[in-house]
Design goal:
Blueprint (H helix, E strand, L loop, with lengths): L1 E9 L6 H9 L15 E7 L5 H15 L5 E11 L2
Antiparallel strand pairs: 1-2, 1-3
């Protein structure tokens, strides 16, 4: 059994009001030094068996066709989180 993680982020040219709200709040709670925050989404896909290159390719295809909106988001990561033997 393996888990694959998929990270999706808004494209750089897309406004991110949630990220901006978080960035504005950080100094108010005493956490300075962050110039920008972008908020994305994370998916964890569990597969039976090993996360082979073919399985990762299918995960990337799922990310590009279903898990993300390609008009406003980029798939920035598809990787194996952990594998059990």
């Amino acid at each position: 059994m393996a888990r694959i993680v998929v990270d999706v982020m808004p494209k750089p040219e897309i406004l991110d009001p949630q990220g901006k709200a978080i960035a504005n709040e950080l100094p108010r709670i005493g956490l300075d030094g962050f110039s920008e925050v972008r908020q994305g989404r994370r998916f964890e896909l569990t597969v039976d068996g090993e996360a082979t290159d073919e399985v990762l390719a299918h995960a990337r295809e799922a990310a590009e066709k279903l898990l993300s909106n390609p008009v406003i988001e980029d798939v920035v990561n598809v990787s194996v989180l952990d594998q059990e033997n």
